[in-house]
Amino acid sequence: MTLKDKIGACCPQGLGLCVGLDPVIAKMPEKYQTALSPLLEFNLSIIEASAPYVCAYKPNIAFYEAHGSKGWDQLKKTIEAIPDDKLVIVDAKRGDIGNTAQAYAIAMFNELKADMVTVSPYLGKDSLIPFLNENDKGIFVLALTSNPGSADIQELTVAGSHVYSHVVKMAVSLNHNQNVGLVVGATKPEILQEILEISDGLPLLIPGIGAQGGSVYALKSALEGYSNPAFVNVSRKIIFASQSDSHEGDVRESAMKISDELAG
Amino acid sequence: MTLKDKIGACCPQGLGLCVGLDPVIAKMPEKYQTALSPLLEFNLSIIEASAPYVCAYKPNIAFYEAHGSKGWDQLKKTIEAIPDDKLVIVDAKRGDIGNTAQAYAIAMFNELKADMVTVSPYLGKDSLIPFLNENDKGIFVLALTSNPGSADIQELTVAGSHVYSHVVKMAVSLNHNQNVGLVVGATKPEILQEILEISDGLPLLIPGIGAQGGSVYALKSALEGYSNPAFVNVSRKIIFASQSDSHEGDVRESAMKISDELAG
Hints:
By secondary structure, chain A is α/β, with parallel strands linked by helices. Chain A contains eleven helices and ten strands. Chain A has a single domain, classed as Alpha-Beta Barrel (TIM Barrel). At the A-B interface, helix 4, helix 5, strand 3, helix 6 and strand 6 of A face helix 4, helix 5, strand 3, helix 6 and strand 6 of B.
């Protein structure tokens, strides 16, 4: 199945929920904190509780690397446990020169079996191309992120335009295999709309809703009239919905509520 | 010992050789290809052969992640084996929002025990600050990289200046603990000189010599008159100096030759 077809199958409404699997031991219910594989066991409970309301899962690799090789193993097993009808996005924000980018592509696609990986555009086209050889694997390129620091470099003005616009044009130019998407934060809906205008329908990964303060209403209003498939990522508000040992109900309810807001 | 003092001790001439530990199994001598821990055993032979001529070692984490958790374990053991009088730079080019950057800082400094880590500036100041809390650990911020794609984003013109100049100014502004450096490629010496002018003496990590085509002569000429400590990275030309099972002599000779060129 091509990536384009998988995205269509995972996100049939064109706008769907992505859950960020970003485990932090101190924030988990106690029974996971003392488990042998806390990241994995916590994630399995989140996946089981949330799956009916979710189009994609997005583990951010930082939270696993903080635990070294044991973390890496638990990330790999987490990905193996994600149902086949969900898109697996590894949030890695990698970006390196050609032969090194090739090694990262092997790490993300062959070793971890991600469908897509987030990448940073700072090193330019040749740092992204090694991820684009197969039409069933692809990238989300960071265009405009959801943090305050996005203003420092991304929003610099370049010849009447902005750095992020150049990144979007670069991403569009690399989409020969229909496997390039964009990361665009929900915290600045007016810039999101500006990016949609030049995005040529590329799929979007949208962080910033929930703990980071972006509003679903403003997001939906910005997306209106565009056909880009959009995965709206929420992490903390779902996975840490409760610290009770029977957190599954709260996780499910939080996922359902946000999924309903996106659909409604 | 503060990072500033360690840099001074590792690189007393102000300009020294950094060896990139970027192992690729197919390029190793045969005896390592069939070893139980090929990355580690290959690296140990490189470190032993090259140490007398080297100020710093820089493993690029991509070449380890391509082997999953086994690769991560071999990276950790490689770093443990690097002599204490060498600077350990993990080339990770990480860059993520605050709470995630904090998890990466734990991965790089606490778990892998790196002295410094390379970071990407695309997400702005708040993505770099979590790496800067301790004065014995620090970052090299990507300013101008050595690959052709550096022109795509880094060299865009912003208000009569360039994106890379804004990155340099941002890095300088974060140097309260004297633990911020810059990555500046050797492939464009004229831009290196422009960056030196505004770099406030920050330490430099300089890739691009050797397989990537940068010249030591042009580099030294650009650095003349500046006091920035500079680690010149060479990887393939040293670590793959020969594919013979007794490659140590060729590795040593290649490291010695480049170290002499830098000193001479």
